[in-house]
Amino acid sequence: MTLRLTGTTALVTGASSGLGTAYANEFARRGIDVVLVARREDRLKALAAQLSADFGVTATAIAADLAAPGSAAALRAEIDARGIRVGALVNNAGFGLHDDFLDADPARTAEMIDLNVAALVALTREFLPGMVAAGHGVVVNLGSTGSFQPCPSMAVYGATKAFVLSFTEAVAYEVRGQGVQVLAVCPGATATEFRAVSGLHADRMETGSQTPAQVVAETFRALDRGRTGSMVSGRRNKVLIALGRIAPRRLATAASARMLS
Question: Which E.C. number(s) belong to this protein (predicted)?
Fold first, then answer.
């Protein structure tokens, strides 16, 4: 089984670097047009030009701050005005903060919730109905191994990713049998800009770290098999999450705190 996305376009948020760039590359490699969304317009335009040159697809760059109120509806209106039909949505935009809750900047914390949670929900609501009406489509929401247990020193970030996991699994169940795959992808440490942005410098996170290309390859293998709901990326991460599920929650919390310290 392979994805049915012919004649549609993949919308990738947070496309200017890391996992977003890797997802956009894979869609383009498969001959699927892409819409690239992030705040850094220069990077988006460079990536769009590269994908068009390398794979012959139409790559559209749209600079947007998805944490801003009304941004999802505005993005949908712009895409509709361009005559683009979105058949795949990758909600990758997001960031984390590595700090104790009481020490973290409240404004930055609120922005993180707006982007990691509110924007993801709003974008899914904007584009999922069209996929259901068409009888095919894909929504990929980026969770984390932090989705599965509390994350001391990254409390709000972990909670946003727990939301992503729960929300995605529930929506996947609601649209089952309608031809649309809704999948939460939960990677662990990945070689992206995430650690630099979040301020996380825990050396333990390097063990078992994946590249963006590895996470994306694993995602597409799951999608090609028709998987929905959720998946953990990386063999080591799968084992750790399985062990965490059977451990008492206080021990899982303590282990998470040690990993993030």
Answer: 1.-.-.-
- Counting Cα atoms < 13 Å in the Cβ hemisphere of 198 gives 24
pLDDT in tens, 55-79: 999 999 999 999 999 999 999 999 9
pLDDT of 205 above 60: no
User: Is residue 67 classed as helix, strand or coil in its secondary structure?
Assistant: coil
Q: Residues 235-259: pLDDT tens digits?
A: 988 888 888 788 788 888 888 788 8
**Which residues in the chain belong to E strands, given as ranges?**
9-13, 33-38, 59-63, 86-91, 137-142, 180-186, 229-232
CB 234 within 8 A of CB 208: yes
The yes-or-no answer on residue 23 being catalytic is: no
CATH number belonging to domain 9-260: 3.40.50.720
DSSP β-bridge partners for residue 246: none
Summary mean pLDDT of the chain: 91
CA-to-CA separations, 214 to 63, 178, 217, in angstroms, rounded = 27, 29, 5
What are the residue boundaries of the structural domains of the chain, listed by start? 9-260
Provide the β-strand partners of residue 170.
none
Dihedral-angle region of residue 121 (phi above 0 means left; psi in -120 to 50 means alpha; beta otherwise): alpha
Name the maximum alpha-carbon separation found in the chain: 52
pTM for the model stands at 0.91
* Cβ-proximal residues to 134 (8 Å cutoff; 6+ apart), any chain: 8, 87, 179
